[in-house]
Amino acid sequence: MAAEPRSGCPINLTIELLGDQWSIVVLRDIMFGGERHYRELLNHSIEGIASNMLADRLKRLVEAGLLSKADDPSHKQKVIYSLTEPAIQLVPLMAQLGAWGRRHRPASRELSIRAQLLEEGGPKMWDAFMNELRHLHLGAARPKRSVIAELQAAYLAEVARG
Amino acid sequence: MAAEPRSGCPINLTIELLGDQWSIVVLRDIMFGGERHYRELLNHSIEGIASNMLADRLKRLVEAGLLSKADDPSHKQKVIYSLTEPAIQLVPLMAQLGAWGRRHRPASRELSIRAQLLEEGGPKMWDAFMNELRHLHLGAARPKRSVIAELQAAYLAEVARG
User: Fold this and answer.
1) Which of residues 76-95 of B touch A (CB under 8 A)?
2) Exposed end of chain A (fewer CB within 10 Å): N or C?
3) Is the CB of B1 inside 8 Å of chain A's CB atoms?
4) Which residues, in sequence order, are CB contacts of A87 under 8 Å at separation 6+?
5) How many CA atoms within 13 Å lie on the side-chain side of A15?
6) Does B112 reach chain A within 8 Å, measured CB to CB?
7) B2 at A interface, C-beta within 8 A
8) DSSP state of B21
9) pTM of the entire structure?
């Protein structure tokens, strides 16, 4: 992103920051997949992100204030990435990206069920999901509802349907 | 975009199609600004899109089924671009792009008021806006409510506030 924004339009400013082929996909893996380490993000990427691309995106997302990085106390020599509050607030945008993609693009059945649930759950579910992410990434209190568990169970049920 | 998608994930598929620096911005100008001709889109671009970039994006958006092009009966030698139904259904995504950008990016006051109204108006306003776009771009009946007029009036009032 250039130092000087192209315009002060809020849509443009979001695109200047996130309008590329990988930033949102990396944030998706951290947000929905719970991947927090470079090696996990690399090895579990269903889109097959290249190592140098992943390293570059993580660096840029940290610089942009969407991720924070810290030494992982449970894994020596490993860095753990956390979503920041602005990144957590991308949940409604993620929901709309998925809602549109499952209607208008050749999405697979197994990979669409979470998008469907997130769309049908609406703002109430997005708020619960954001609260869960604040617990997992920012140390906030654990909420009663686990949207991640709901989405994961629905995904596994779809996979089991075969 | 590659012929073969990177994955069947609906979020990824949307990003594969629209994850770049200009596609959404061009669609925004057609959707909110009512620009329908190449020359208007070029000359009115507040981000200063380059002519070859604009031509390339328009071509790709037509190929992707998000825009249709036709000879404009009121302007000889001019091509008019129309949003397709899938593009019109990007309205909720545009609303979230604007909602996030006005909170977390250095958006200008004048250019944020439409994003604010669209966010506060919620799905009801988005539906009305989509119906208006179906009238303007797809020949559907004219709805009573004009969201474009509401947004434009609010924008002009902000500009007048100076």
Assistant:
1) 86, 89-90, 92-95
2) C
3) no
4) A27, A31, A61, A66, A67
5) 24
6) yes
7) no
8) S
9) 0.96
Query: Which run of H or E residues covers position A6?
Result: none
Rounded-to-integer distance, Cα B118 and Cα B112, Å: 10
* Whether A14 and B115 lie within 8 Å, measured CB to CB: no
The model's pLDDT over B74-93, given as tens digits with 9 standing for 90+, comes to: 877 789 999 999 999 999 99
Distance CA(B96)–CA(B92), nearest Å, equals 6
Round to the nearest angstrom and report the end-to-end CA distance of chain A: 43
Contact assignment for B11 to A97 by CB distance below 8 Å: yes
Query: From residue A15, how far is each of A125, A132, B10, B19 by CA, in Å?
Result: 25, 26, 19, 8
A51-101 pLDDT per residue, tens? 999 999 999 999 999 999 998 888 777 899 999 999 999 999 999 999 999
Test A13 with B92 for CB contact under 8 angstroms: no
What's the CATH number of domain A1-83, 3.40.5.10, 3.40.50.720, 2.30.30.40, 1.10.10.10?
A: 1.10.10.10
Instruction: Report residue A107: phi and psi, to 5°.
Output: -75, 145
ipTM: 0.96
Judging contacts by C-beta atoms under 8 Å, the chain A residues touching residue B47 are 6-7, 9, 12
User: Looking at the predicted structure, is the pLDDT value of residue A3 above 80?
Assistant: no
Segment A46-51 long-range contacts (CB within 8 Å, at least 24 positions apart): A46/B6, A46/B7, A46/B9, A46/B12, A47/B6, A47/B7, A47/B9, A47/B12, A48/B6, A49/A22, A49/A25
Which residues in chain A have Cβ-Cβ distances shorter than 8 Å to B10?
A: 97-102, 105, 107, 111-112, 115
pLDDT given at position B2? 54
At position B10, the amino acid (one-letter code) is P
